[in-house]
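User: quick one, sequence for these tokens?
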């Protein structure tokens, strides 16, 4: 029973370490939380032991683990013989104590197997418990008429309600930030210790804590349907389903068990027919020794542990299917923006057409981006402000109608009636003054509050340019003014026939050669110039892609950028293949094309237009920040919303297959040594020449049987840490991995039993004497 206590202690330490690390990241030195952790650890320990004992039910084992079911049936037979040794004089010749000892070792073998499964499931439950600890009722400051606050329970909140959250308070429910900027501590959800910056329009998760300032949050989910509820449900559903490979391996083990039972049953009468003594305990020990009990005992734990390890990387798997497919992945389809690059393209330069200047492009780009709240749009405005490229008619541009950028239109900007008087509301007036003051340096602004008319005069002086004259001329007409920015080909199609296409395309090509993305800017049908956007590669992305490629996986980059820009980025990141100027439907078509070639496909996505491709892909990772359609279609959800985490999934899938293969190899290799330990014990008292088979020189048939059964039992708990942690993944060709595992787990698995069984036999000899 020493082994049992050791395993229990190891399990306790693992749980304490995991939970204490999480506790330290949130609130170091919090004594109350430490006490809760100790209580939780003790509760988990008891639950694991009780759960593992419950799984000893023969009905459960017959359904889920045929190998351990066979071992348990052997235990029942040996135990019955131990209590009733006179049941047969021909096949029962040993001391009854030997049968009882063998029975104890056999049931411990089964218990170690159920214990490993229960321990792995306990890790998944611990993840659920940590999420549920956030799912509690808190008080909320609900905003009612005239900005008044009333204190209510979070469970009473409904979608559309606004609440104000102050520093140190818990965000009561999922929602969107309406007012304010602050840092939110999401460590209990994502495991990331650094607070996340949130501002207007950003999504916040119920149960997370506000680390600074205050926010006004609009509730977006109903009680019981929050993101947290969905994650708890996903993790709970992820703990039990078996993968296709696991089912196939279970069926193979069941078939082997049946074959070995038939062989041993036949051998019982064959040995007796030849005149040798065949003891039932010896034959049962041989049966258990030959069966792949190690992999049979650890197989359930390996699958569940794989899902749990993904959870530590803030990735929730809906089932084991996606992880299993990741191990067989052939092609990895990656979106450029956000996966290979940082995903935050910034404006770095304005490139004018011949008739215009850099200032002209800056003014037009500023106007087209005034309502663009993306990082890209803000960077254009920031660059224009930095260079003091302010357009005239600012009092009309700010309240102008916004033309939203979409994946289909690939352009956006503003539209207004030039001679129509604009009426600014209070917020727009403040924005107007704020923008103007950052550009116009006038000493009187420091002493008096200028009127809008004063600022308009200052802007007219400061904005003298060709675009300035163009806009003022358009103001005299009654026509609509459209100031757009977008893809070069789209703006070209919208422009008039007089545009110099050769010049525009050449300048766009120059931007693309440097790995940048060109955006054309136009006023009505006149193209003013280009904005050069630059996105940086993600840190270590080249090394990560090389690791994936080394394992035999082909990488494909999809991007809406032009071919030249895509090729530059692909070369920098060392991607195998590029698909440029890709539309949303191209993702689905590419997945289908690769699958028709018999390949296993992995991809990431976050938009509704990604949902069909995610549903079709074998490994589909959706971003937490993405749409509900994407998360529903995918078989995994990334809480960190980091698209490059798809490579973590692929590595873990490879590791899962390697672990299963390594332990299977080790289990089969073990049988050879155990065979040579048990076989000599079968022929005691027979032909002396057969005693030559006793190459291990074991002391007696009794010690041979017990030594083999003890080794067969303790090897299962000894390999529990490996099954939970997984075999170490190395980025190398599959052939090299296979050969290394054959040497370590094949040859090692064959040699270790000889040493261990002999050592156990020597110890038993000491006790017997």
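Assistant:
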């Amino acid at each position: 029973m020493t082994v049992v206590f050791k395993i229990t202690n190891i399990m306790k330490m693992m749980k304490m370490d995991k939970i204490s690390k999480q506790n330290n990241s949130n609130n170091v030195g919090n004594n109350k939380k430490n006490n809760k952790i100790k209580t939780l650890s003790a509760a988990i320990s008891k639950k694991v032991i009780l759960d593992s004992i419950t799984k000893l039910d023969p009905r459960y084992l017959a359904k889920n683990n045929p190998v351990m079911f066979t071992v348990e049936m052997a235990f029942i037979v040996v135990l019955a013989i131990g209590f009733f040794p006179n049941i047969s004089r021909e096949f029962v010749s040993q001391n009854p104590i030997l049968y009882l000892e063998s029975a104890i070792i056999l049931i411990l073998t089964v218990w170690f197997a159920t214990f490993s499964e229960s321990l792995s499931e306990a890790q998944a439950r611990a993840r659920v418990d940590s999420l549920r600890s956030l799912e509690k009722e808190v008080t909320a400051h609900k905003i009612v008429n005239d900005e008044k606050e009333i204190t209510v329970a979070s469970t009473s909140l409904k979608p559309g309600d606004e609440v104000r959250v102050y520093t140190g308070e818990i965000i009561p429910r999922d929602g969107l930030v309406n007012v304010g900027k602050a840092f939110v501590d999401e460590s209990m959800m994502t495991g990331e210790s650094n607070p996340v910056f949130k501002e207007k329009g950003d999504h916040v998760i119920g149960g997370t804590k506000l680390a600074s300032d205050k926010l006004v949050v609009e509730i977006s989910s109903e009680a019981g349907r929050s993101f947290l509820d969905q994650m708890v449900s996903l993790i709970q559903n992820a703990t039990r389903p078996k993968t296709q490979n696991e089912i196939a391996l279970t069926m193979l083990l069941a078939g082997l068990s049946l074959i070995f039972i038939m062989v041993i049953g036949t051998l019982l009468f064959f040995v007796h027919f030849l005149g040798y003594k065949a003891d039932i305990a010896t034959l049962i020990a041989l049966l258990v020794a030959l069966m792949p009990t190690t992999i049979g005992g650890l197989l359930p734990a390996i699958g569940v542990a794989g899902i749990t390890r993904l959870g530590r990387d803030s990735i929730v798997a809906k089932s084991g299917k996606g992880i299993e497919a990741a191990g067989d992945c052939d092609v990895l389809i990656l979106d450029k923006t956000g996966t290979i690059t940082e995903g935050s393209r910034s404006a770095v330069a304005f490139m004018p057409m011949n008739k215009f200047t850099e200032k002209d492009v800056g003014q037009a780009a500023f106007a087209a981006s005034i309502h663009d709240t993306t990082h890209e749009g803000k960077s254009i405005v920031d660059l224009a402000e930095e260079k003091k490229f302010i357009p005239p008619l600012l009092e009309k541009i700010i309240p102008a109608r916004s033309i939203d950028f979409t994946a289909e239109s690939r352009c956006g900007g503003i539209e207004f009636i030039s001679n129509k008087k604009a009426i600014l509301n209070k917020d727009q007036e403040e924005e107007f003054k704020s923008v103007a003051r950052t550009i116009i340096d006038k000493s009187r602004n420091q002493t008096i509050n200028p009127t809008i008319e004063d600022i308009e005069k200052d802007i007219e002086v400061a904005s003298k340019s060709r675009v300035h004259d163009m806009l003022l001329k358009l103001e005299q007409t009654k026509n609509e003014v459209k100031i757009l920015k977008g893809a070069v080909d789209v703006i070209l199609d919208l422009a008039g026939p007089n545009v110099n296409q050769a010049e525009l395309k050449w300048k766009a090509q120059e931007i693309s050669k440097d790995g940048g993305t060109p955006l054309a800017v136009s006023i009505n049908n006149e193209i003013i110039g280009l904005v050069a956007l630059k996105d940086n590669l993600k840190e270590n992305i080249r090394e990560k892609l090389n690791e994936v490629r080394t394992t035999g996986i082909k990488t494909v980059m999809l991007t809406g950028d032009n071919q030249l820009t895509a090729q530059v980025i692909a070369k920098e990141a060392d991607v195998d293949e590029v698909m440029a100027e890709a539309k949303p439907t191209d993702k689905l078509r590419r997945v289908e094309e690769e699958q028709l070639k018999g390949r296993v496909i992995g991809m990431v996505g976050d938009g509704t237009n990604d949902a069909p491709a995610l549903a079709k892909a074998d490994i589909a990772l959706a971003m937490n920040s993405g749409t509900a359609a994407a998360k529903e279609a995918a078989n995994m959800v990334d809480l960190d919303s980091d698209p490059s985490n798809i490579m973590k999934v692929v590595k873990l899938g490879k590791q899962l297959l390697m672990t299963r293969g390594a332990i299977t190899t080790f289990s089969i290799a073990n049988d050879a040594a155990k065979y040579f330990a048990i076989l000599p014990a079968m022929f005691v008292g027979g032909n002396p020449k057969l005693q030559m088979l006793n190459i291990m020189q074991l002391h007696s048939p009794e010690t041979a049987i017990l030594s083999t059964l003890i080794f067969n039992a303790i090897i299962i708990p000894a390999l529990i840490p490996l099954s939970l942690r997984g075999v170490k993944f190395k980025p190398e060709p599959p052939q090299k991995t296979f050969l290394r595992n054959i040497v370590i787990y094949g040859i090692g698995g064959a040699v270790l039993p000889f040493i261990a069984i002999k050592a156990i036999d020597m110890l038993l000899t000491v006790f017997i004497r």
